[in-house]
Amino acid sequence: MRSFYPEIEPYASGMLDVGDGQRIYWEESGNPEGKPVVFLHGGPGGGTSPNHRRLFDPARYRIVLFDQRGCGRSTPHVSEASAPSDLDSNTTWHLVADIERLREDRGIDRWMVFGGSWGSTLALAYAETHTDRVTELILRGIFTLRATELDWFYEGGAQAIAPDLWEGYMAPIDAHPRSKERTLIGTYRNLLWDEDPEVALEAAVAWSTWEASTITLEPRPDVIEHFAEPRQALAFARIENHYFVHQGWMEDGLLIRDADKLRDIPGVIVHGRYDLCTPAFTAWDLHHRWPEAELHLIKDAGHAFDEPGILDALITATDRFADAR
User: InterPro entries recorded for this chain (predicted)?
Assistant: First the structure.
């Protein structure tokens, strides 16, 4: 079973001004003459990590990572925002434009696109918009912001499997009934931007902990601890919630409907059968619309990219595409 490539450090990095007062952190590692690949992180709001570089053979890939607007090392950071309006220029289509600006800035004509979880949403949105710039697509933990997907994980469906963890998600809502809206996502929006910073942080940690506690098949205290760190939790929860309140600024089902645009792009879809966060029905629906892509349902995995079966499938895919141009 394949595992991570050795740890590597970037050979170049910087901050790219993408407009709207936003500067995104980018880095390159691996082989400057290698096959270009851009990695799209999850969340939205999750940021990149050093292990993301290790999904690619550093001798054969020119590995481009970046932190999306408002999170990671990009500025301004959403944990320091004062109102929801500070996120007005943070949408799916702003991020699609940022990817194109980064590609042009780095002097890359075409590249492979790798995205997991929210990163799969963004990868689909980018590839369906800029098909001619994508050589291959590798997608993991498929998520497309359909109402059925959001309702499952954030409005109560998943509590059928994790009722104990769901109590933690509901705790801030129960503690602050004045914030209640018609939906739990709407209620969380009020809590995450409460004028009392303690209320906002409590909500951010609860939102982030719910996700961190359910993305792996077996509990991972290190993952939960990372997600619950205050700065990380505030950016992660606020950005995710912002996207979900607005349904990603997309017609429901748009990315699945338009997947036929991808038919000339080689693709691999990797999804854990026991993914509680983004259930496998979305990967199945995408595959039916894009049958040319390989679908790998990993029998003993949840959602996280570094679970052994998922990691093996992802690195098998990146190795296979490494020498294609």
Answer: AB_hydrolase_1, AB_hydrolase_fold, Peptidase_S33, Pro_iminopeptidase
CA distance linking residue 131 with residue 261, whole number of Å: 7
Domains of the chain: 12-148+249-322 (3.40.50.1820), 155-247 (no CATH)
Q: Closest by alpha carbon to 45, among 227, 249, 246, 283?
A: 227
pLDDT digits (tens, 9 = 90+) for 63-76: 999 999 999 999 99
Distance between alpha carbon 75 and the CA centroid of its chain, in Å? 18
20 sits in the region (left: phi over 0; alpha: psi -120 to 50; else beta) called: left
Question: Cα(317)–Cα(322) distance, rounded to whole angstroms?
Answer: 9
Residues assigned a catalytic role? 117, 275, 303
- Strand partners for 137: 113, 267
Distance CA 6, CA 10 (A): 13
What are the Cα distances from residue 65, in Å, to 51, 55, 149, 187? 11, 12, 27, 33
Q: Look at the pTM and tell me if it is higher than 0.90.
A: yes
